[in-house]
Design goal:
There is one protein chain. The protein is mainly α. The chain has a single domain, classed as Growth Hormone, Chain: A, CATH 1.20.1250.20. It is built from seven helices and no strands. Helix 3 runs antiparallel to helix 4 (89-102).
Length: 180
């Protein structure tokens, strides 16, 4: 998500407004469009967070989380290829569902597997496993952005989509256990 947030405006600028010039009117429009799209996917995430509860209870947090990550991956793969502003809101649904699940299901998976008296320690370690990859992507992406991504932010969103699919596959390999 960190790479998505960092490059989505540039991707929209290129695909919808045909600009990479951060001082252009098209780029300002890309910033505004991203704001609209982000508000939309956050609304989807808010509603979905409640709607995911019965699915999580029925199918388990790992399966639901994997499905939501896959939908987010599909959305991220589609975004760089969309040239019409209003069509951006379709893949934003997948991003919103993924974001809703990211905000809850990993904690449900973890909480069921740790001893209650150690919750604080394990949640702290878990949060480091969120922050450290974000720092790593921020520190390393500039080094391979031009040589491996062609300097094109749309390729970063494609990478984000692929990484979401890999995350979905990884979460399906988790075992849900009850502590104690």
């Amino acid at each position: 998500m960190a790479a998505y947030w960092g490059y989505v405006i540039y991707s929209i600028g290129r695909s919808v407004y045909q600009t990479s010039d951060a001082t252009s009117d098209g780029f300002r429009s890309a910033v505004l469009t991203n704001g609209e799209m982000a508000a939309f996917y956050n609304f989807i995430a808010f509603v979905a967070a409640f709607g995911l509860v019965p699915f999580t209870k029925r199918f388990g947090p790992s399966v639901v989380h994997a499905a939501c990550l896959a939908l987010a991956g599909l959305g991220m793969l589609a975004l760089p290829h969309i040239e019409d502003k209003w069509l951006l809101f379709v893949p934003a649904i997948g991003v919103g569902l993924g974001w809703a699940s990211i905000m809850g299901n990993p904690y449900v998976i973890l909480a069921g597997a740790i001893p209650p008296e150690r919750t604080g320690v394990y949640m702290g370690i878990f949060n480091m496993m969120i922050v450290i990859p974000m720092l790593l992507i921020a520190a390393t992406l500039p080094f391979y952005y031009k040589p491996l991504m062609g300097g094109d932010p749309r390729n970063v969103l494609t990478l984000c989509g692929v990484l979401m699919f890999l995350a979905a596959a990884a979460v399906l390999r988790t075992r849900e256990t009850k502590a104690g």
